[in-house]
Amino acid sequence: MPITDNKNYPFSFSMIDIKKIDPSPYQHRKYFDEDRLRELGVSIVKDGLIEPIIVRPQKKGRFQLIAGERRLRAIKDYTDMKMIQAKIADVDDLQARRISVTENLLRQDLSAIESIEATIEIIDMEMGKDPWYLTVGKTPLERVHQLLSKLDSIRRSKERGSVVLDAEKDLSNKFIGQVELIFKNLPKPLKWQPFLMNDLILLTDIPSKVQKASVKHDLNKAK
Over the stretch 116-126, which tens digit does the pLDDT of each residue have? Predict the structure, then answer.
């Protein structure tokens, strides 16, 4: 019988054929270290799967992965197991996206770039119902960067005593509290201004090939 946990969505547990599980469209991890996957596979064979993967039901008896891709890959590639224990969550697209991002962030094994992208994903989800917000960029990165840059520009103008247009005051009043609350409630709480200045710059100002290399070699922000 389905039950509900503190995330307020019904779920159940079951053993699932790994061949019936489709990839997550919300996966932020871009690089999987094969040596670590092999080690994880050995650990699972020896000690069992400590935490189930999370999936949601699809048509024709198939399932879509929400969280746990490393565990699934390790079992597929480095064990003889045919079935995997799964938490089957009855969630919509938005909830699945949120669970996937939150689970990745809390596991603390994403690279710096992947963590920033996951944080952007959560902010974009929270802001995504606002019509103005959706017009400021075509991608989550563009939208989040434009919103935070605009709020920071207004803040700095106020601090300098410069003239701030009424429209800008209205925009700041509308979004500043919401943005601060989103950052406070992140899986790893942050301040939005340091995130704009120190984190987003790694995606907006660094070439994509450097970003890819940093993900592959699991570089931190300083590196």
Answer: 888 898 899 88
Per-domain residue ranges of the chain: 3-96, 110-216
The first and second tokens of residue 110, run together, are 């994403």
Cross-sheet strand order for the sheet of 21-22: 3-4, 10-17, 83-89, 53-57, 63-67, 21-22
Give the Cβ contact number of residue 179 at 10 Å.
21
Are 55 and 65 within 8 A, CB to CB? yes
CA dist 70 and 49 (Å) reads 12
Token readout for 27 is 């996966």
Instruction: Reply yes or no on domain 3-96 having CATH 3.90.1530.10.
Output: yes
Predicted confidence (pLDDT) per residue in 92-147, tens digit? 888 888 888 887 777 656 678 888 888 898 899 889 889 999 999 999 999 999 99
The tokens describing 160, both together, are: 């300098």
Residue 2 to residue 125: CA distance in whole angstroms: 26
pTM for this entry: 0.67
Is 117 tagged catalytic?
Answer: no
Can you say whether the dihedral through the CA atoms of 138, 149, 183, 199 is positive or negative?
A: positive
Residue type, 50: I
The active-site residue, picked from 69, 114, 121, 126, is 69
- At which residue do the structure tokens 């290399």 appear? 213
127: tokens are 């802001």
Distance, in Å, from the CA atom of 82 to the CA atom of 75, rounded to the nearest integer, reads 8
Distance CA 74, CA 35 (A): 10
